[in-house]
């Protein structure tokens, strides 16, 4: 049996991106400013990480106007949701010690 | 990745879920508000049995619906399964409302035994959708 570590998603594995995807997985969509406050990062850091997730087709970005303001809404795609679920399953397996090879003696 | 790190990541995901889910509670206010507006509209139209009742009822409905729509657009977080819940809630309301109006105006004008139950029934679909969001958020806690 392979170690569950091999099932971790490389895109989601980064701590900030993991937080972004975890937050988005709990809603249909979240606005940029709310997500920034939830993940506790700056606008530029969030933009950069969102671009990576968008490139992987895990997150969809939509802009819309409310009055004179433009708002940015972020949604986890079906692929992104599936990848997150798989990543969480792998994390659970690691946490539970599933298929972890015995520690080597020094 | 070590086991402790995996636990930490899982706890972090759970903490974020606990923060995000309640942000969708507004949909319960919207859904129940929509239901109350519908109930008021059907009672005023059905029981007044006059053109004035229809005018007052529809004017109130138009104003209340505009306010509810504005409230909805301003919300930064859309709850999980929002699209399906909203579609089913509004579709269910549409069917009951149309039935109440068409049958009521032809056969039961000014008849409380028709209009009161139908007004109550029309409040159920959107209120139910709102309560589902509340229940799911509660389960996440």
Total separate domains of chain B: 1
Under CATH, the topology of chain A can be stated as: Arc Repressor Mutant, subunit A
Q: What Rg of chain A is obtained from the alpha carbons, in whole angstroms?
A: 17 Å
What is the CATH architecture assignment of chain A?
Answer: Orthogonal Bundle
Secondary-structure element series of chain B: HHHEHH
Structure description:
The complex is a heterodimer of chains A (106) and B (141). Chain A has 106 residues and is α+β, with helices and mostly antiparallel strands. Chain A has a single domain, classed as Arc Repressor Mutant, subunit A (Orthogonal Bundle), CATH 1.10.10. Helices cover 52% and strands 20% of the residues of chain A. Chain A contains five helices and three strands, in the order ααβααββα. A three-stranded antiparallel sheet of chain A has the order 1-3-2. Chain A is elongated and about 55 Å long. The model of chain A has no long low-confidence stretch (mean pLDDT 90). Chain B is mostly helical. The two termini of chain B are 27 Å apart. In chain B, helix 2 runs parallel beside helix 4. The model of chain B has no long low-confidence stretch (mean pLDDT 92). Classes of the chains: A alpha+beta (106), B mainly alpha (141). Chains A and B meet through helix 2, strand 1, helix 3 and helix 5 of A and helix 1 and strand 1 of B. Strand 1 of chain A pairs antiparallel with strand 1 of chain B.
